[in-house]
Amino acid sequence: MNPLVVLLLSFFVLIAIRVNIGFALILSSAFVIVLQDLPLVSVVNQMFAGIDSFTLLAVPFFMLLGRILNAGSITTRLLEVADGAVGHIRGGLGHVNVFVSMVFASLSGSAAADTASVGSILIPAMKKAGYPAPFAVALTAASSTLGVIIPPSIILIVYGAFGNVSIGALFVGGVVPGILVGLFMMLYTYILAVRYGFPANPFPGARKLARVLVRGAPPLMIPIIVLGGIIAGLFTPTEGAIGAVLWALFLSLFIYRDIKLRDLPNMLSSAVIDFAIPMFTVAGAGIFGWLIAYLGASQIVVNFILGVTDNSYMIMFLLIGFLLLVGMVLNPISATLIFLPIIQALGDTAGMNPIHMGVLSTIILSVGLVTPPYGICLLVANQIGGASLGRSMIAAAPICALTILVGLLSLVFPDIILGLPKLLVPDLIPSGG
């Protein structure tokens, strides 16, 4: 049997019997290495190479940032800003849900953190206001995936680090499509609100709105610190993440005083554990991805696709369909790491700019955070909302379709992704596409 088939088949069999994904990657890779009579030391070497990246240090800092935001009053302040800005529109709490997810995404870069923190407040509030529980769950889960698209995105960090693509340009490229997805979700919420009579919150008045904006302004400095510093060339994404953590700690410890110094050891240890688990998967993906490249999977896939069509749009449509299927069983980080060589090879074949390809694949993979059987954001939100999982899945389907629509629009109109990088960071954009 072809060793590439053995590699993929053994991996998915291990996943099907619920073996941890990191172990599944390592065991399937080691099995093929033995079959191919390659040195077993390659396992250790490639696992180390997979995590030997300074850029990846940004990930634990963003994870720590998410814990700081949730432990203090910052999330509540952001909710107040969102309520003041959009809560008075018909379907107010739904708009607040999406809006705060857009803002929260620009702070922590974590979809699951957004689901847990925002959902624990807004899902019960939406149910109390008369919104159907499945819709509240679906909207919370789907909007939280904006944390994968809007910078700082952990997935874009991983894509840039392993794909040799500018993370700064990827960050800037994710801004417009991420906002567009959020606006589409708000439009969908408004249409349902008009149809089913969902309520709007009263307008707080200009004076109260101004006070809320002032209260929320310091946390909103975080995306400015990260994105502004990277665009200006003042620091790397890792240094930007450290700066964001220091600013959040300063606010929480000394300004708002809602976190104590004695809380920090637990927060740091939790962030380390949260980081260690995905890093084990990253290490496993290092050897798995190396084997995929060694066995020539990228060229095999490219040759197969070209045997079906040489139209660049058809190639990309096939890749989008593949990523949607992969996202249903793998989290976006694992999917990016494992299939990055194939994604980039097909992108090159279709003449896609590397920045365009990175952001587009991230948009599509973000859908997997809501779709079963993986669907971690939907599962977390559903646990909070106590709705029927089947009904929540049905309610989430049209919202997920909006994300896919933005992906397709970004494919047809590349400047949705590339327009802002061309304007702000033209030196970081490679040629192509």
Write the layout of secondary structure elements.
Layout lengths: L2 H14 L4 H15 L5 H11 L6 H14 L2 H13 L5 H17 L2 H18 L4 H12 L1 H4 L4 H10 L3 H30 L9 H11 L4 H11 L5 H19 L8 H31 L2 H12 L3 H16 L4 H18 L4 H13 L9 H10 L3 H24 L2 H10 L9
Helix content range: over 70%
* Main sheet: strands, sense, barrel: none
- Total domains: 2
What is the average of the pLDDT values?
87
H/E order of the elements?
A: HHHHHHHHHHHHHHHHHHHHHH
Helix and strand content put the structural class at mainly alpha
Uncertain regions: pLDDT < 50 for 5+ in a row? Answer: none
Radius of gyration: 22 Å
Task: Give the termini distance in whole angstroms.
Answer: 37 Å
The count of helical stretches stands at: 22
The general outline is globular
Q: Care to count the β-strands?
A: 0
Name the beta content range.
under 5%
Protein described:
This protein folds into two domains: 1-38, no CATH class; 39-428, no CATH class. It is 77% helix and 0% strand. It has helices at residues 3-16, 21-35, 41-51, 58-71, 74-86, 92-108, 111-128, 133-144, 146-149, 154-163, 167-196, 206-216, 221-231, 237-255, 264-294, 297-308, 312-327, 332-349, 354-366, 376-385, 389-412, 415-424. The longest helix is centred in the middle third of the chain and has 31 residues, at 264-294. The chain starts with a helix and ends in a 9-residue tail after the last helix.
